[in-house]
Amino acid sequence: MTNATLRATGQDDTQFGIGQERACAELAAGLTRPQASIAPKYFYDTQGSKLFEAICALDEYYPTRSEREIFRLHGAAIAEAAGQGAVLIDLGAGNCEKAASLFGSLRPRTYVPVDISTIFLQSAVAQLRQTFPGLAIHPLGMDFSETLALPAIIQAQPQKLFFYPGSSLGNFGPLQALRFLRNIREQDGDLLIGLDLLKDVAILEAAYDDALGITAAFNLNSLRHVNHILKADFDLGDWSHQAFFNSAQSRIEMHLCARQACRVSWPGGARVFEPLETIHTENSYKFTRDSATELLRRAGFAHIMSWTDPQQNFLVCHARAA
Question: Would you tell me which of 71, 230, 243, 322 could form a disulfide with 209, CB atoms 3.0–4.6 Å apart?
């Protein structure tokens, strides 16, 4: 294995770790459904990744602070449960800061950051190599939302620890989340995962609709990314950000809402959006401690341990492949 970014089979050499043909097909299919949708992975071009970094620093966005506090307060117990010397596979690594903060306690023998935004990932890894010159780092640019197809050289490694922080599992629907976790379990990997806990609706909604409008910019940037990939002609001025808690589904929903009637076209397709019609861009499911434990057990994990912050905002779980 070299130090170059690994790529999954069939991916192109763009900044986004998914093949152009597949991405165009996915986007066109989503935009033409009765409820138009754009998968949340399309938030993460380089600009979107930078905007998400800014979101994580917002007062309203508690998950990053809460998760950091859990690792600060319970780091020793988490390290004891997870062990040391594993191949640390960081799913949705972003700027790699969360994993890097655990290097001292987990002491991974190899670090495999995985992210769909490949150029952003390469930049983060270049900085990480300067800080940790003795650590083997093998970045992987890929879309793991549909299938977690790791290279054989990684799959063959003993003692793998999959790290999935930041409540990203909540972007999956219940059945998709279960399949995703079972895929990890089938690769004989242990899991260290962050999950957002159910809480007051006002706190939840503020986290996804901040006063500075950075989350709105993040949501709208997905249209810019779609324009680039699909060669569409979305006018960002035609759309506004919308976020609300769906209590029946126990999830935050993010949408883009048409300010006025508008026609959007792309090679081979088009759609007219009526005023106030929306494009569904993200779900973020919220858990209880019991529902999180039950989900991990259904996926085939055992010896589940969990820790939370003093405000009970967030949960970190470690689970072993049964």
Answer: 243
